[in-house]
Structures are given as structure tokens and as C-alpha cells.
Amino acid sequence: MMRLVRHGLMYGNLVEVSSPSMVGRYNRALEHLTGKQTDLKEFHIDISGFSPEIGDEFDDPLYLNPNGCNRQFILLNVAQKTAPLLNAHFSTSRSILRRFIEDNEEQLFALSIRDAVVGELVNTIFSIRTPLDLFDIRTIDVEADTVGGHVEAGDELTDKIQRFMTEPDGWWDDVLIAEMVELSKHTGDIIRTPIALQPQSFEQGNFYTSHYGGLYVFRNVKRTACISRQHLEADDLPVKHILTLQNRREIASFLSRNKLVEPVFEADKRRAESILRQKLDFIVIDTAATRGEDLSDVSRRDLRALKRKHHRDLPDEYHDLERVVRQLVKGERLPRITPEDPAFFYLLRSRHHADKQLVNMLLSELTPLDFRQLFICNKDSFYTQYQSWSDAKKTFAARFLSEEYVVDKVGTRTELFGPEPGMSGEDEDNNFRTEQNMGPWGAIPRDDDEDDDDDEDDD
């Protein structure tokens, strides 16, 4: 894994904490939340204030996330907003934290000059005992204050100022005035520099969770589903379909009938040809690495030689995609590929909607040989799979990602997945019509248990 760290592909963009004053401030916040302190003199933190070094020191990667369902956070600096979120149990947690920081950036900046800001992403449950408990999480409330309680004191001072200004005898209330003076010593001038944080609540709609081996929960769609990595012992979930990643036909039908995906070649066939050729290269690399080839300095010419050498050994995904690319180049009708074919999901990407990142994350699990999409959309799964790869594939993947992706992350994501959805989550491209998103080659056959009554809402 150190190869990934050296290339900036793991633990990248964390915030360094090295000055004695900031370490001391972090320790006060840590003791306030957990009753513990670190002996480390320098470490790095993510957007929530979690430090992988301190996690190792405590032998507890969940020291800020007890039970994995109410994430606590420590903000030393608003610069944390661009850092990643490590050990995330819910796909929505990082976006909620970033939105909270951005919406309160001025107040948080003023507060963090004095003290660390601590808080929690609060939902209605405190532990997850069954998969059904996940469906009780509907909203996430963000609660925050400094270790010294500046926000609470500011709210109290605001109330007393209001009393002082409105009560008839407020001007002569010596006790009230004395209390205001004492509070102002703690809060500073809240008239010129307000320190109130706006209460915020975020809806937990469709999401991924790492609980129970990994679950994709789609409940804010017309035809609801829960898709798990492994068989789930639960038949009481409030969704229409309970699927595993092996239910390829059912997943394809679910994605299509909810209009969540489109073929990669729908918008620009020339760009799609380039994307698919790269996917072919990744499959070749996997096969060549398995057969002991040296991939330390592979050129385009070397890749062509590897394709010729191992052509018969390449998996079905390769041969199906190769036929599609060949027909794209000729401008002829594309060969028909069904959900049962290994290459099917390699030809899809998410449409432009609020759950675009979540859908692309799911697709990355269905296309594991495309290590680039896996890294971009699903880093935890990438790190897990990376450990089982040969050294040759690890070397190639690390070099490719550092040279081809890290140097232009935004451009690569735009090329692969199209523009990011707006904050409203509205579909902003009128060119995506319903009939264009039924599947790469037209409508995907309905499941046997679905009939015309499915045109009504399932919820």
C-alpha cells in the first residue's frame, strides 16, 4: 500500500497537524469527545478530523465514529473541507460535512481561531442491529460548538441582549448586565462578529453503507431496491427488490426502469471509442499481469504486443467490448449484448441526476477490471482489490493513476461521466430522453414478476 501513498493515491490531501498549539487544541477536542488524548506530536486529519495515525495509536479506526452510525467531527481549520473522508460508513457523510463547512465558513473561521469546533452528524438511531435499522435513518442533523461552548454562550448572550433591549426594566437590571459582561468576555463582540451556526438538517435519501458487507439503498426512486455485495438475511426491508451483485439481469432492469443509466456512447461516439479502448487496455493489463509479464514501463506499442500474445487468454469482457469498438469505428449497428454478458455494465454510465456518484459507484463494482473507475468512484473497494493483485498490476495501476488521472482529476471525470449534477439535483440536460436510457440496445426485458402495474409508484 505504500506504493499508493507515495503516488498520492492513498491518504492524499489530508491536513497536516504539526504545531504544538494545534496538537494541543486537537487533544482538548479529542478528550472532550472521547475522553482520550494522543501522544503523537504530528499527524494528519481528514475532513472530519479523523487521523489514521491516531487510529493506529488507539487501535481503533472508529474512535470518532462509535458504532459506525453517528459520526463525530473535529474542525481545526476550514481548509479541512477539501480533504477526503476516511473510513466512511455512509456515502452521504462527506458531502454533508462539506456542505456544513461551506454554509458556515465565515462563522467557523472565526470560531476556529479561538478553539476547535466539535460536533456530530446525528440521526435517530445510535447502533445498527439489523439491516432494517438503516431505513430508520431519514435525516442527518449537524450539531456543532467549540470545546469551550462559544456557540452556546453566544446564543445565551443573544437572548440576554434581547431581554436588555426589550424589557422595560432591562436598563436597570444590574444582574442581567453583569451576566452579559461575563458572557461577552467569553464570546467576544457577537454584534460585529456573529458566532451562531445555523441549524442544518440533511435528507438521507439514496445511499451506500459499508454495513453488512456493503449495501446500496435506493428508496427515493419509483421502483425501490436494496443491492448487497453478499446475500442479505432480510426479507422485511421496505423496498420492492432485494438483490445481490450477482443478480445482473435484475440490476440492469432496475437501473434502466428508473432511468438511472445511459450508454457511454450516447452523447459522443468518438469520445466513447477512446473510453472503451482504455477499458480494453485495463483488461489486457490484468491478463498480462496474471501471466507474469513485466509491466513496469509499458508503451502503446507494448500493449499491442501484449494483446497479440495473450489474445486467446483474454476474458469474455474483452472480446465483447472489442466487437463494440469495431462496430463504432465502422459506424455500423452495434452487436447486441445482454445483462448476462460480462461486458454489459462496462458500456453504461450514470445519467445526469442527483444520485450520479452513487450509481457510478455501483457500476464500478460490476466492472472490476476497470481499475480507474473503481479508484475514482469506490476507493475502499479499490484498496481491497488492490491487495490481491500481482506486483506487476499494482505497479502499472499506481503509475497510470498518478500520471493520467491525478494530474487532471476534473477533466478525467468529466470525460468519463459527463458534468457533475447541480446542487439542486435536477436533471439539467434535456437531451437525455426516456427512450434513450432503456439500455445500450433498447429496452431491457422486464423481470418475470413485473407487470404493467409497475408503472405506479411502489412507495
Low-pLDDT sequence parts: 423-443, 448-459
The helix count comes to 16
Number of domains: 3
- Write out the strand line-up for the largest beta sheet, numbering strands in chain order: 3-4-5-6
The helix-strand sequence is: HEHEHEHHEEHHEEEEEHEHHHEHHHHH
Structural class: alpha+beta
> What gyration radius follows from the Cα positions, in whole Å?
26 Å
**pLDDT average, as an integer?**
83
Content of β-strand: 5-15%
Cα end-to-end separation: 44 Å
Q: State the total count of DSSP E strands.
A: 12
- Shape annotation: globular
Biggest β-sheet description: 4 strands, antiparallel
Percent helix:
40-55%
Report on this model:
This protein has helices at residues 2-6, 20-34, 52-58, 93-103, 105-114, 150-166, 174-187, 248-257, 269-290, 300-310, 316-330, 356-366, 371-377, 379-386, 391-405, 409-417, and strands at residues 15-17, 43-45, 72-75, 117-122, 139-146, 200-203, 207-209, 215-218, 225-228, 241-244, 261-263, 348-350. It has 459 residues and is α+β, with helices and mostly antiparallel strands. It has three domains: 2-147, no CATH class; 208-246, no CATH class; 256-437, no CATH class. The strands form four sheets. It has a four-stranded antiparallel beta sheet, sandwiched between helices. The radius of gyration is 26 Å and the shape is globular.
